[in-house]
């Protein structure tokens, strides 16, 4: 256990949602690649499955902040070493596998390999996002902890920034490397969900109680979205 932190109960039921969201991301790309574009079922599935990307990042941020409520300087080496082993190594292995398989159609090029390593093959981009988040997590955590008591305002500001950023992206105002397919790999595109997940972790009991007490309304709202004409 980290110095200066208190032992917390492991939230298996929340942590178990991450592979479900990962499956949704993979399923989303599978529908895009294989399903006919004119299919109503495929288009509807792609639309609904898009939320799994944001949900995965929200849960990941929440679980990381919950596991490390107050990361200390002396814990940084252990923190990054563990992140590299659990995420960096599998990502590197799968990038090599994808690169070898692509040699049948693409010539051997280390520049291509480096480009794919930094941007992520296909569904691997969400691991690129995670590694970006891990890199700035200590600084982001320090800021959020210092603004304790103003988390509502911080979340509102983050929402405004998210709406403005996505709008600029939609209207093609941002440079090309911050929009379209590149936006999937930019951490800024998901900052609201990451900050929201961390704030939820620091107010987990209140957040959990609110969700449980409003479960019926939340479920009804989700079902109503599914049945929109």
Structure description:
The protein has helices spanning 12-15, 17-34, 40-49, 51-67, 76-101, 110-119, 125-146, 151-170, 191-202, 204-213, 215-226. It has 229 residues and is mainly alpha-helical. It has one domain (12-226). Helix 5 (76-101) packs antiparallel against helix 7 and helix 7 (125-146) packs across helix 9.
Tell me, rounded to a whole number, the average pLDDT: 82
β-sheet strand percentage:
under 5%
Total domain units: 1
User: What gap, in angstroms, lies between the N and C termini?
Assistant: 51 Å
Number of strands: 0
State the secondary-structure class: mainly alpha
Largest sheet: none
Kindly state the percentage of residues in helix.
Answer: over 70%
Number of helices: 11
Strand-and-helix sequence, N→C? HHHHHHHHHHH
Overall geometric form: globular
Radius of gyration, taken over Cα atoms and rounded to an integer in Å: 19 Å
Uncertain parts:
1-6
What attributes does this structure have?
mainly alpha, globular, 229 residues
Architecture blueprint of SSEs:
Elements: H1 12-15, H2 17-34, H3 40-49, H4 51-67, H5 76-101, H6 110-119, H7 125-146, H8 151-170, H9 191-202, H10 204-213, H11 215-226
Helix pairs in contact: 2-3, 2-4, 4-7, 4-9, 5-7, 7-9, 8-9
